[in-house]
Amino acid sequence: MPTIKYYLREGLLPAGVLTSPNQAHYDDEHLRRLRLVRALVDVGGLSIAAVREVLAAIDTRDDSLHNKLGAVQEAISQPGSGELDPLAVKDVQAFFERQGERDCVDVTESNVTHMLAAALSAARSVGHDHFHDLLDPYLEGLKIIARADVEYIARRGSSDDVIEGMVVGTLIGDAVIKAVRRLAHAQVSRDVIGNGSDD
Amino acid sequence: MPTIKYYLREGLLPAGVLTSPNQAHYDDEHLRRLRLVRALVDVGGLSIAAVREVLAAIDTRDDSLHNKLGAVQEAISQPGSGELDPLAVKDVQAFFERQGERDCVDVTESNVTHMLAAALSAARSVGHDHFHDLLDPYLEGLKIIARADVEYIARRGSSDDVIEGMVVGTLIGDAVIKAVRRLAHAQVSRDVIGNGSDD
Predict the structure, then answer these.
(1) Which of A133, A179, A182 is opposite residue B119, by nearest beta carbon?
(2) Per-residue confidence band for A58, with pLDDT thresholds at 50, 70 and 90
(3) How would CATH label the architecture of A1-59+156-199?
(4) Cβ contact (<8 Å) for A64 and B195?
(5) Could you tell me which residue ranges the HTH merR-type domain spans (chains A, B) (predicted)?
């Protein structure tokens, strides 16, 4: 497979053990790392340079799996480039304060909080000034989803497999959630707005 | 504003009442329609032709608001162009059967079910054959979210404003949910995987 040779050349996969001049042996560890690199490139759309950074974060010995997951999550969560509305930034900070976390001084320090502030800025730019009212019910629903996500990946054996599961689960999960949310809209709209009346 | 003139010329806004040779009066109805067209173009990224189709669906007299919302939702939910895995299609059909809905014979009939089958196909293509196990907990969490979404838009007065709210709420909501899900991951991962151990 040419991609494996490419990943080897780029230093993203450790070299196998040579069993003959033109054959190398790769063990399970290699396969796990290959799956992870593929997930980062094919599903995450990361550049080779970004993959190298992610792998360096993962291979740091003196860090917990929780912190490694956080570092990878940042790498796969790129915020848009739009201007942030200062009021939307305040919305995010107020949300964090309601969660009992008071350390969100600069929302652009994390890609994830930056992404949230960017989305609320987009809402405000089209006159939806109270979109932040949805944050608390969103978090309530997303805790159920996040628990299922974390259980899905925690079953996996190795640290590389847990992280690969998080990359795939986070990014493909975004698309699945988009679709299932629309199905849930249809169900709830039938109950709340009803099928028979107009305006 | 040049965009208003453009929308008028394209027939997306009804003409105002002329109050002098070069001034027209626009009422609240016009403003609501303008907000809706802007949401479809600026937030939804729809082409002018697609906006025209959406408006035609909305202006159909003999249809319920619920059905109109469904038509607009389809217009703003474009599935990707990837191949569908027949096993992923079966996953979607089994999910519908579990919901007691047996009429999902062809998933490509609706953009939303097509989007779901495409996402599960992507998961299978990277070896995640059990991603569909997440559908039930996802729906559970998304029902809470969808209820908040529908309440958010149902407060609005006119049919155009409800639909505008659904377009903005659905699309900007997708981005907000992406970010809040990652925050929930961090919270849950701290509880389940813990902060101190490696592998």
Answers:
(1) A179
(2) confident
(3) Orthogonal Bundle (1.10)
(4) yes
(5) 1-57
Q: HEC states along B40-78?
A: HHHHCCCCHHHHHHHHHHHHCCCCCHHHHHHHHHHHCCC
Structure tokens that stand for B15 in this block? 């003409």
Chain B partners within 8 Å of A110 (Cβ):
none
Mean pLDDT of B133-152: 97
Taking residues B174-192, report their average pLDDT: 92
At B1 the pLDDT is 53
Find, in chain A, the residue whose alpha carbon is nearest to that of B74.
A182
B15 and B4 Cβ atoms separated by less than 8 Å: no
pLDDT of residue A132: 97
CA distance A19 to chain B (A): 28
Confidence of residue B124 (pLDDT cuts 50, 70, 90): very high
- Of how many residues is chain B composed? 199
ipTM over 0.90: no
Pairwise CB contact (< 8 Å): B189 & A134: no
Proportion of chain A above pLDDT 70, given as a percent: 95
Task: Give me the residue spans of the domains in chain A.
Answer: 1-59+156-199
A–B CB contacts, 8 A cutoff, strictly below: 283
Taking the C-alpha atoms of residue B64 and residue B61, their distance in angstroms, rounded to an integer, is 8
Locate the chain A residue with the closest alpha carbon to B155: A193
Maximum distance among all Cα pairs of chain B, rounded to whole angstroms: 76
Question: Residue A185, Cβ neighbours under 10 Å: how many?
Answer: 26
pLDDT (mean) for A14-39: 86
B198: confidence class by pLDDT, cuts 50, 70, 90: very low
Q: What residues of B are in contact with residue A162 (Cβ under 8 Å)?
A: 193
Packing angle of the helix pair A135-154, A86-98 (nearest 10 deg): 60
Interface probe with B: pick from A40, A61, A66, most Cβ of B within 10 Å = A66
Mark A138-148 as b/e (b = at least 16 C-beta within 10 Å): bbebbbbbbbb
